Amino acid sequence: MDWIYSLGLFLGSLIANTLASLSGGGAGLLQFPLLLFFGLPFSIALATHKVASVALGLGAAATHLKQKSFTLQEAVYITLVGCVGVVMGANLILKIPADLAERLLGVMILALGIYSHFKKQLGQSVNPINRNWQGWIIGSLALVFIGIINGSLTAGSGLLVTLFLVRWFGYSYKQAVALTMICVGLFWNGIGGIAVVQAGASIYWAWLPILLAASFLGGAIGAYLSTRFSNKVIKQCFEILTLLVGLKLLL
């Protein structure tokens, strides 16, 4: 690519990852279509996007870890159970119609955004629920399902995790976004990238440095902003991004 395409890819990825880090997911809304627009085949673009998204988690991790808004055990739990689904999803993506799956996911994400909008107090404060053994088991099944979506599709799974953590376990939006950025952005996407490559896709290494730099910087900026904004503002950002991601997947 010449410098114009390089700059366009960097800026697009930076914006996408900043919004994702602030709202708790959705980096694939812009970054993945950019890769397709610049000529990469679907499977190569997916693998390249997954690996680059690891830098999003790295960029956000330092800021969120300083806040100490969750425990190590909670992060390990979400990471491990989700990665089971991620590996399954990465092997399914080459076997199912991607268009149909993305449209169904778009409907689901739109519905979640609308639900959040009308639940005004959702995620505004910490309200621990379902944190007994039954709740953790049911939560595991849901996170495995979301992990399958993460491994097989390009955008939206982080938003699903964010709202699930708020609704099922009673985290505030700030806590849920922090957990999503570390567990999904860093570990789920890293495992997903490896699994997609093992399933037969390849990474386009020439563009990876640009994407890694933009993802890391976007993750750091978004994480910094999330510590400065209230749960109400983060909730609104989440709802706007679910609308955009849902419409993008549908249309």
Structural class based on helices, strands and sheet pairing: mainly alpha
The general outline is: globular
Radius of gyration: 16 Å
Low-pLDDT windows of residues: none
Order of SSEs: HHHHHHHHHH
Helical fraction? over 70%
Number of strands: 0
Strand content: under 5%
The number of helical elements comes to: 10
Mean pLDDT: 86
Q: What kind of sheet is the major sheet? A: none
Distance between the termini: 28 Å
Tell me about this structure.
- This protein has helices at residues 3-23, 31-37, 42-67, 72-92, 98-118, 133-152, 157-169, 173-198, 208-228, 231-250.
- It is mostly helical and 251 residues long.
- Helix 6 (133-152) runs antiparallel to helix 7 and helix 7 (157-169) packs across helix 8 (173-198).
Features:
single chain; 251 residues; mainly alpha; 10 helices
Could you provide a short overview of the structure?
This protein is mainly α and 251 residues long. The chain has helices at residues 3-23, 31-37, 42-67, 72-92, 98-118, 133-152, 157-169, 173-198, 208-228, 231-250. It is globular, with a radius of gyration of 16 Å.
Q: What's the SSE blueprint?
A:
Blueprint: H1 3-23, H2 31-37, H3 42-67, H4 72-92, H5 98-118, H6 133-152, H7 157-169, H8 173-198, H9 208-228, H10 231-250
Helix pairs in contact: 1-9, 1-10, 2-3, 3-8, 3-9, 4-6, 4-8, 5-10, 6-7, 6-8, 7-8, 8-9
